[in-house]
Amino acid sequence: MQSTPRLEVNPKMTPVSKETAVAQLNKQRELYSRIVEAFPPGIEMAFAYGSGAFQQNNSLDQSKNMLDFIFVVNKPKLWHHQNLKRHPHHYSFLKRLGPHTVARIQERYGAGVYFNTLVPMEGRLIKYGVISTAQLITDLLDWETLYISGRLHKPVSLVIIPSNEHLLTAMKVNLQSAVHAALLLLPDMFTEEQLYSTIAGLSYAGDFRMAIAEDSNKVQNIVRPNLALFRQMYGPILLSDEHLTWWQDEGQLEQALTFHSRHHHLKCLPGQVLYGLLMQKYQCSICSENHMGDTAL
């Protein structure tokens, strides 16, 4: 069995004691709570994510990074109406068009998320996106955009824990789908870091920003400092997968590359992914038939 690669440690990152880490975490949670409490009621779920919330290898001082939040609301139009009254300066010129237009833009364009950015709150700059509960559930189950569902493949800091059973179930399915997709991309033997890197990279696949505007090592920078959090997220799923063997102490995994196991992972993929695979197969068949026809002529 191959040995687990030693994780690189950034020498500029000063190690802290467990007590200090807990104190910092509590302080961080209090900050997030104060920020979220400044917004109108009606938020079903709120979480912080990104380099402002979690340590990354290429970021030495989290406090200098923008804090990113996602607010999940049941009634976007009503929530924007209340938020425009409370925080009109958060919005761009679109605020002049009213909450109905803001909510319509949110739900009809892009990934179903409306962002306000560069907002100063509690001594930090924040960016927050608003998405409807229904839109998020759809994305979690089907990966229609893999935008917020992809962010939830990685560790986030929940500020408001959802009580909606459908949303909680969809969040669990989203993690399971990520494991199925990653296993189809991995060989028979691999490390935990390779697994989590594959999962974290799913939402970046085909993203031109990874090649042009953003750090090409972004996935590793996210995964390596947060391996324990990834294990906490995915450990129960890995333990319950009968097609997988996990040596936890060594951080090694082995999967069966049989037809049965591959079929199992394929049929558990989200609907949008399966549709894409079917369309790709259909297009390949058409191209093959056209090529054969041209050859015959």
UniProtKB/TrEMBL annotation:
Coiled-coil annotated spans: none
Pfam families in the record: Tam41_Mmp37
EC identifiers of the protein: 2.7.7.41
Topology term for the membrane: Peripheral membrane protein
Keyword Lipid metabolism: yes
Pathway recorded for this protein: Phospholipid metabolism; CDP-diacylglycerol biosynthesis; CDP-diacylglycerol from sn-glycerol 3-phosphate: step 3/3; Lipid metabolism
Compartment(s) of residence: Mitochondrion inner membrane
Biological process annotations from GO: cardiolipin biosynthetic process; CDP-diacylglycerol biosynthetic process
Catalysis performed (reactions): a 1,2-diacyl-sn-glycero-3-phosphate + CTP + H(+) = a CDP-1,2-diacyl-sn-glycerol + diphosphate
Cofactor requirement: Mg(2+)
One GO molecular-function entry: phosphatidate cytidylyltransferase activity
Main localization category: mitochondrion
Family: Belongs to the TAM41 family.
Cited function: Catalyzes the conversion of phosphatidic acid (PA) to CDP-diacylglycerol (CDP-DAG), an essential intermediate in the synthesis of phosphatidylglycerol, cardiolipin and phosphatidylinositol.
Name by which UniProt lists this protein: Phosphatidate cytidylyltransferase, mitochondrial
Annotated source species: Elysia marginata
